[in-house]
Amino acid sequence: MTSPRVAGHSPLVALAFKVSEQVQVPSDLASVSSSDELIASHATRVYRSLRYLGVLEQELSDACQEVFLVMHRRHGEFRGDSKYETWVYGICVGTARNVRRGRRRALARVSDEEPEEVFEPTFDEELDLQRTRARLNEALEQLSEDQREVFVLHEVEELKMNEVARTVGCPLFTAYSRYRLGRRKLRKLLEPMRKES
Amino acid sequence: MKNSYRSDPLTQSVHAARSDVPSAADVRRWQHSVATLAGVTAAPTAAAAMSSSASAAGTSAVVGTSKASLGATTSIGSGSALGGLVGGGAKMVTSALVTVGLVGGGAVAYQVSADSAASPRDQGATLQSAAPSTRLEVRSTPQSVRQKPAAPQVPAAEDVVTVDLANDRSQVEATARIQSAHVSSARVKGDSAKSTPAAPSREYSAAEEARVIEAARRALATNPAQTLSLVQRHQQQFPEGALGVERRVLLIEALYRLGRQTEATHALETFRRGNPNSAHLRRLDQLLKVGTLR
């Protein structure tokens, strides 16, 4: 580092790569080669939570990809003070909020046309399942954003309530209260299903 | 089984939701697009990190800045470097020292000409005398900088731009190439690495090489046949180019995407023999395995 002529820059450049490579080694999740595994192990979590947090079918694939990219990019920010899953859910919640808000803006500009639901039934039971899911999603639309997030994370994703509170960023008591209210509302909304069947 | 929760619509809905999983095809698509997108930006990451260390007065905060400024897709290198710094205990100190050393060193390095005539031995000596903290780290690194090119190790600097040191070039030359390749690929993409001085062009054009590989990568998702032809072009044009490993990886992926399983597997095995420690192997193995199951 003394004379500008001595080194050329290659060793330092090489060293920079060595360092970045070396630091990658302990945090296995960060390396590109394992990003596939990372995605595979979180795919269901990400897909499902986004879907029930109000991301529409046609937005879902892109939104999932966005979450994975964010996971990839911000991996270094994961401090290990919560479970990795909880951290991932945090990203999902944030992404879902963004998607919903973006859509609300877009809809306000254009029209309030309802996106058509597309079913691709394979057999009756599958169709049944899809209908049930769609209906749950409709009902979830009636909840407030806060209630929806808490309900989905606790019931569908089966997070413990303290993890839910941490993920959405509210006190534990508040999370319980949102959950109770949301659940009561959903029950009422889904009651007609009982009569049908 | 279904009847057990039929009676309660809410429970029934929740169960239906829990069983809602993405298709295997979706997962594969995400894996691929993330690998591609992350790959595309990883090269400028390195280049931009270099440029900021060249321009700014150095503390490890510089690395943080370069990371933040890279809004785009990924910053594996610096991102996980920070992660490592946070988690690392004693190692943290060493890494921090290296970071500072590098930043300072980078500044010097960019002021000198790209002439890398100094012998590897001289450079090793320079490293030792110039940056003792750096040397400490080098020693603990499995594939150290001072390693002789005779050992056919392929360190994956970033996953994207990997360098084939197995070529019988001197390591100095090879690393100079990595760097120029990084710089040029950043330019190709119009990235913010404008302050970075480009390595002077020789008869070998790193920019051109990076462009070919980059185009091949871009085509992979939509038009693997084109990837294949670009890979072949690269092979003719830069038979011993710095991005040889990248070319071989793209070849395997393109063959796989074209449904040419046998050839892909064959190419993978050839690649494995030449690069037994490549960071690509795990992903490629998985890719081909998944493909076979399908």
Low-confidence stretches of chain B: 1-5, 41-202
Rg estimate of chain A, integer Å: 22 Å
Binned, the helix content of chain A reads over 70%
Biggest sheet architecture of chain A? none
Q: For the CA atoms, what is the radius of gyration of chain B?
A: 22 Å
Largest sheet of chain B: none
- Which structural class is indicated by helix and strand composition of chain B? mainly alpha
The residue fraction in helices of chain B comes out at 55-70%
What oligomeric state is this? heterodimer
Order of helices and strands of chain B: HHHHHHHHHHHHH
What's the layout of helices and strands?
The complex is a heterodimer of chains A (197) and B (294).
Chain A: H1 4-7, H2 10-24, H3 35-52, H4 57-73, H5 84-109, H6 124-142, H7 145-156, H8 161-168, H9 172-196
Helix pairs in contact in A: 3-4, 3-5, 4-5, 5-8, 6-9, 7-8, 7-9, 8-9
Chain B: H1 9-18, H2 24-55, H3 60-69, H4 76-87, H5 90-111, H6 120-130, H7 132-140, H8 171-188, H9 206-222, H10 224-237, H11 244-257, H12 261-274, H13 280-293
Helix pairs in contact in B: 2-3, 2-5, 2-8, 2-9, 4-5, 5-7, 8-9, 9-10, 9-11, 10-11, 11-12, 11-13, 12-13
Question: Please, could you describe this protein's structure?
Answer:
The complex is a heterodimer of chains A (197) and B (294). With 197 residues, chain A is an all-alpha fold. Helices cover 73% and strands 0% of the residues of chain A. Chain A is built from 9 helices and no strands. Chain A is globular. The N and C termini of chain A lie far apart (79 Å). Mean pLDDT of chain A is 78; it is low at 1-9, 17-33 and 112-121. In chain B, helix 4 runs antiparallel to helix 5 (90-111), helix 9 packs parallel to helix 11 (244-257) and helix 12 runs antiparallel to helix 13. Helix content of chain B is 67%, strand content 0%. Chains A and B meet through helix 1, helix 2, helix 3, helix 4 and helix 6 of A and helix 1, helix 2, helix 4, helix 5 and helix 6 of B.
